[in-house]
Amino acid sequence: MKTKAKKSAKFMLFTILIFLTFFISYINQIPSSINVTKDVNYIKLTKSNIIKLTTSDIDLVSSQNKNSVKGYVKLFGLVPIKEVTINFNKDRKVYAGGHSIGVKLYTEGVLVVGFSDIETNSGKKQSPAVVSNVQIGDMIVEINGKRIKYIKDLSEEISKSNGNALNLKLKRRDKYIDTTINPVLNKNNQYKLGMWVRDSTSGIGTLTFVDPKLKKFAALGHPINDIDTGQLLTVREGSIYKAKVIDITKGEKGKPGELRGAFSEDDEIGNLTKNTLCGIYGSIKNLNDFVKSNSKEYTIASQNEIKEGPAKILVEVDDDVKEYNINIEKINKQSSPNSKSMVIRIIDKNLIEKTGGIVQGMSGSPIIQDDKLVGAVTHVFVNRPDMGYAIFAEWMYNELDDGF
User: Active-site residue numbers?
Assistant: First the structure.
């Protein structure tokens, strides 16, 4: 009898642990903050969890000029399990993009991307940067108290050092670190620190949307990371430009394709000010560069308004932005921004014929469903070029206007 009782107790404990694991996972699916429009009367959070808002709640928020209210998700409609902030967005109408853009970004300082030993007249010497505990991913922001913005600034300070020690201020993640480094004279009589550096990056991407009231843009749907370190690049200054697609490499299984584009610095259309997990942002110079006679305004959809099924993608692969058919295969409910909000599949034969599916350079391409902007393309599946990930448009919009 005791053995049976022990087995029953173990089974019950195991069942309780399984239930608790499932329950915690279930709660984690529920976002802590939700953006809705004023005409929404209920919010579906998961397949069986709904927060209901009455008309009086909405009127109260409006009359008191408040942006949000707090509500509770209740288990079986009785037991409060999580507090949720419901944000009533005043106006989330934007012009959808789809245009190819050139992007140029200058970093906050000079980024360290690698090290090298130095060839001297007496043989190889270890990199002074390594000796001074400089790390890959560090940003050099000052030398001897002088602000370093460009590689040429760094080169000038090293050249005039005459081999004397230099005081470096480094930004390492979110902290600033001071170190001293001794330049070494190489066999060509040049002083070197034994490191590879970068102060800018450029490429081609896709504009997602423009807010005509704020005169701001959002693009890419994912951050610009350094190609060598994988580090998110902090923006000191930057620009976006009109770009033209000049060639297309079709995507194949195991080999991502690419939109190859060209742009001129004479065709600047906006200033780049932010590089975030949700994409790049900035101000536009002239709304007419983006808004044409056939341009259309779309409301930003909340993630709870999106459904699996048919949708459209806006892409520029010829000389103009066109709509192509896609399918939203899966929606991942999220409580915080992530570039893998949805799984999408290209089903338009014309686009597949031109590109093979999703290719590099299409990041940021807006996705339209039920006449709302629901998301933007972010990644391609390497072994399924017709499929990839997309980010929720509301995540991108929330980064656009910090004042909301």
Answer: 222, 348, 363
